[in-house]
Write a structure and sequence with these properties.
With about 240 residues, this protein is α+β, with helices and mostly antiparallel strands. The chain has helices at about 35-45, 85-95, 135-150, and strands at about 5-15, 25, 55-65, 70-80, 110-130, 165-170, 185-190, 210-215, 220, 230.
């Protein structure tokens, strides 16, 4: 069964989609990345098997439409240099060891070039993994019910959890907003940090993929993850076809 496009209009006061080549100071891409867009859909609806941690389907983002002008804002934040150990926290919860305070000896002040007043129209499709192809229609119906009623497993966010994203379900072809007349070649953009071809990413190592991104008349078309236009680790060193 051919997947039906699912559309969300999302907006927020701030966003930061960090460029991976800038390690210390965070500098946002001018547009939401496919992985961040997928994360918003996942926050609303994702469905693992009850018998295992493997997902029944994945989201394939196909289009990102820019609805507001790109505007940056400089933020300076204090960040801690260390975090509590997960293993220690589990021991404290079980009572096998006494809780110990986390002493912050020195805070690190970092600059963030974030986006402000963002609004996008996101289009994605449900792609069932092998063995779940017959659930396509039921999965789509469940997502529509959840998105229409504003339900989500956790509140979606724009890159950083302190930048909440608000969403509204839009029937395909009936969106009121129109993309900006804006064109820009963004160069190489982060596609995702997981191998989307496998149904189990919860314990998988990072899998960085990139693609050539170009906004044309306010629309960024996202190639399928399986496409050769998406540069994956096994394709390192190969020339990427033009998007």
């Amino acid at each position: 069964m051919k997947p039906k496009p699912q559309v969300l209009e999302v907006w927020g006061d701030f966003a930061c989609f960090s460029r991976p080549e800038l390690k210390v100071e965070r500098f946002s891409y001018p547009l939401i990345t496919p992985s961040a867009a997928r994360g918003i859909f996942d926050a609303i609806y994702c469905k693992p098997n009850r018998e295992s941690t493997q997902a029944q389907f994945r989201w394939q983002v196909t289009n990102i439409e820019l609805l507001t002008p790109v505007a940056y804002i400089a933020l300076r934040r204090n960040e801690v240099g260390s975090v509590a150990s997960v293993a220690n926290i589990k021991q404290w919860m079980k009572g096998t060891s006494p809780p110990q305070p986390l002493i912050i000896e020195e805070a690190q002040q970092r600059q963030t070039m974030a986006l402000k007043n963002v609004r996008y129209l996101l289009t994605a499709e449900i792609r069932p993994f092998p063995g779940h192809e017959n659930k396509q229609q039921a999965l789509e119906a469940q997502f529509i019910r959840r998105a229409t009623h504003g339900k989500c497993f956790h509140h979606p966010y724009f890159g950083c959890r302190e930048f909440p994203a608000y969403f509204e379900y839009v029937e395909p072809g009936k969106g009121k907003a129109t993309p900006l007349n804006y064109t820009q070649d963004l160069g190489m953009m982060l596609y995702d940090v997981f191998d989307l071809r496998t149904p189990n990413n919860s314990h998988a190592p990072p899998f960085i993929s990139l693609f050539r991104a170009e906004i044309r008349r306010g629309v960024l078309e996202i190639p399928p993850f399986e496409s050769e236009k998406v540069l994956k680790p096994e394709l390192a060193g190969r020339r990427i076809p033009n998007a």
